[in-house]
Amino acid sequence: MKTGLISLVILITSWSSVLFAQKYTNEGKDFWFAYPKVTNEIYATAISTTTFEVHITSKTAATGTISIDEHVWPIAYPAFSATFSVLPGEVKTVTLPTGNLHNINYQFVYALFNLYSVHVTATAPVAVFASKLYPYQPTASSIMPTSSLGSEYFVTTKPSYAGGPGITSESGVVVVVAPGNPVTVVVTSPIDVKMTNPPPQPNILDAGVPDTIDIAARGTLQIMTVVGGEDLTGLKIEALNGTDVFAVYSGHAYEKKTGHTADPMFELEYPTDTWGDEYIISPGEDLLVSDYRVIAMSNATDVFVDGVYYSTLNEGEYYEDTISITKVITGSNPIKVTYFMPHRVDYGILTYNPGDNSMCNIVSNDKMYLDTATFFHFAADIIDSSFVKVITRTADIATVAVNGVIINNWQAVPNLPSYSHSYTKMDTGASVLTTTGCGFLAYVHGFGNYESYNYALGAFSQHDSINITDLSIGSSGLCNYDTIQFSSSASDSVLTYKWKFGDGDSSGISSPTHAYATGGTYPISLILNYKCYSDTLLDTIAIQQCCLTDTIGFTYTYPDPCDSSIVEFTATSTGQMDSIWWSMGFPGGSGLTGMTETVNFSQVKTYNINLWIYGSCGWIDTTIAFTVPSGPTDHYVLNNENINYCQGLDSH
Hints:
Among the domains are: 25-263, no CATH class; 466-543, Immunoglobulins (Immunoglobulin-like, Sandwich), CATH 2.60.40.10; 552-637, Immunoglobulins (Immunoglobulin-like, Sandwich), CATH 2.60.40.10. It is an all-beta fold. Helices cover 1% and strands 47% of the residues.
């Protein structure tokens, strides 16, 4: 890139919160990132002209803070903190201090220089975009919130230019950022790499040998190739405990020689739990040829291009090819696809492709639920063409609009006609994509004779989750017979809910309550049915056996031997009885609270006696049918004397 042109990609969505195969969102309230080494090493004194910027937008009004820790080596810089305020649809740009982000005096001495993380917090969900502007070599990337970070990544990079007057190849570079907590990662590289944690001293990691590295809270780890022009594709970074999350940004640093330049690259990486098995990829509009790479998450992954088998990959291996027409890439297991726009001289013909190199991670079709996206293209003399590419379901093409105008230049995707794609040439400034259908994917790219950029507008993202609240007062944990409230983080656009609590009970309301009779671990599932898809959430709940279930009931006697409608009930329990509540099965017969209660029934019939006892397990109840006899029973008659005392008659 030759000027400070940056395309900002801003997502605005109508949902509050990834489907069961987790989706990826760029909206959030907490962000951590760092700029990898992408600036010039040779012209070290020119680094003072570098500008670091953070661009923030939001669907709603939001305020927040951007902070950077104190820089302590080798030159001290004070900590940085700045507040921001953004209105709905507005883009707020904050310029960061260069000194806090790397040390210009030492970057030429040490191939890996200081990296300090940037922390962005907001009062409402915002989208964050970071740019690094340097003469002839600007670059930028979307930033993912902490809620969208993962625990395992495979890196994709590609040296896109390897020759020319006075040019040496790029060095592959990756930066890992720990959010607010320390993270221990395991790094396995297909080639020898150098890395630093913390700066300044790098260390060498041998190819194929896993290395465990502790990254302090708010800290960074930068990894680079040992030799310029080498490739980091297939480098694996995973949390040692399998659960800690962190951010990864990759690309290439480019050296600038006198009289010749080329672009660096800076691109966010997607964690493996966001990968899919079907992708649509095509070259940019008016580009004769581009490259792509497919990387496998697991062994024995078959890769197909337009339904034709091309390769079988093991974990971290990749398949590479050129692309001149739209293709459909599928995998037998989850894969990642990365698009590379090559430098204009990569294929030996100066006018073969316009622009400099750029890269973009492609989004899988199962993430095609984005309904609104705002993107910005800023004017620059060297950029003469800017396009937005949109992919949607063919059934939805009449619902997709840019700046309120329905897009009509659709073409069915070859070999997958249920999807269609379009290219629309854009003017400078802000634009908005919308749909009333089930969603789209979109990519923005632009180029001139020496300039290019390429970014994904992101993916529909939904982090539905199950929430559990114990409503029982005084409970020391989740106990049997506790009243537990179940809810989800789903938006109001859910059509139906289907809960299963793992003990045979279920519910169809949004926030049901449930109690477990016995302790144990129960699987919980929730199916959320939306307009265009279903989201299945799985979880478990551990219930403690806090008490033994008491057996409760009652005994009864007839206090008046001549009137069987008068009955005395006495509550019984195998455990303690702190409180009692009776319902005698007729209007006005509820609310009795004595251990023993005498009731005069008005009719000869069967009544359902409901007894509640509060004991060591809380409130438990039983209902027992009781039939009032029609008259005095035999034990009221002194048969040996043949006298019925209730009737007052002598049988003689």
